[in-house]
């Protein structure tokens, strides 16, 4: 079978054009990526009464209008229980972070919110620095595994945190899937 030089050049230029077009579309993508460092930690700590032991400590929440809360040092939920995180807009033009937990996280969130109404859930995270973002009051049972809070952070910090947390979820899911396949 003979292919003439003209036909070869036509196919060559068509393939080259398609490759350049595909590359241009890929690099022009506006999808945001998580920062390389930080923005990957989210821990929920329960408010407790000071008991004189080293199992709890007093923390300061907020940057401008601060308040103190005594919390357990060990979190009851962390990023390993996450399914996804997102930024939600409120009616007044503000924003909040909504996190969805896996089955185990949903059970723990329900258990802690049922048995500790009137206490606070302190939210610890890593933005540019490690800090306490919020401490909302538990007013009802959270049985659906969704926890929404308004953080003491800028919109840019919150967007980066959500991207970083979702990246962590993806890495943990891949690691878990690989480990399950090896068993």
SSE layout and pairing:
Elements: H1 5-27, E1 42-46, E2 56-61, E3 67-72, E4 82-89, E5 95-101, H2 103-115, E6 121-126, E7 130-134, E8 146-149, H3 155-182
Antiparallel strand pairs: 1-6, 2-3, 4-5, 5-8, 6-7
Tell me what the structure shows.
The protein is α+β, with helices and mostly antiparallel strands and 183 residues long. The chain has helices spanning 5-27, 103-115, 155-182; strands at 42-46, 56-61, 67-72, 82-89, 95-101, 121-126, 130-134, 146-149. The chain has a single domain (42-182), classed as Gyrase A, domain 2 (2-Layer Sandwich), CATH 3.30.1360.200. The strands form three sheets. It has a three-stranded antiparallel β-sheet, with no helix packed on it. Mean pLDDT is 84; it is low at 25-31. A hairpin with a 5-residue loop joins β2 and β3.
Total domain modules: 1
Main sheet? 3 strands, antiparallel
Derived structural class: alpha+beta
Sheet with most strands: strand arrangement: 1-6-7
Shape: elongated
Rg value: 24 Å
Q: Approximately how much helix is present in the residues?
A: 25-40%
Short structural summary:
The protein is α+β, with helices and mostly antiparallel strands and 183 residues long. It is built from 3 helices and 8 strands, in the order αβββββαβββα.
List the keywords.
35% helix; 3-stranded antiparallel beta sheet; 26% strand; alpha+beta; 3 helices; Gyrase A, domain 2; 183 residues
């Amino acid at each position: 079978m003979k292919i003439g030089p003209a036909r070869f050049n036509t196919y060559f230029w068509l393939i080259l054009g398609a490759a350049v077009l595909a590359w241009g579309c890929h690099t022009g993508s506006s999808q945001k990526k998580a920062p390389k460092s930080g923005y990957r930690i989210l821990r929920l700590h329960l408010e407790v009464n000071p008991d004189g032991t080293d199992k709890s400590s007093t923390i300061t929440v907020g940057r401008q209008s601060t308040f103190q809360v005594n919390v357990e040092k060990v979190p009851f939920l962390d990023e390993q229980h996450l399914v996804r995180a997102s930024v939600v807009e409120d009616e007044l033009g503000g924003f909040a972070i909504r996190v969805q937990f896996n089955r185990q996280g949903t059970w723990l969130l329900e258990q802690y919110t049922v048995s500790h109404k009137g206490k606070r859930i302190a939210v610890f995270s890593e933005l540019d620095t490690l800090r306490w973002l919020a401490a909302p009051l538990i007013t009802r049972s959270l049985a659906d595994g969704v926890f929404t809070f308004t953080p003491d952070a800028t919109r840019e910090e919150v967007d980066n945190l959500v991207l970083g947390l979702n990246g962590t979820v993806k890495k943990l899911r891949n690691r878990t899937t690989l480990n399950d396949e090896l068993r």
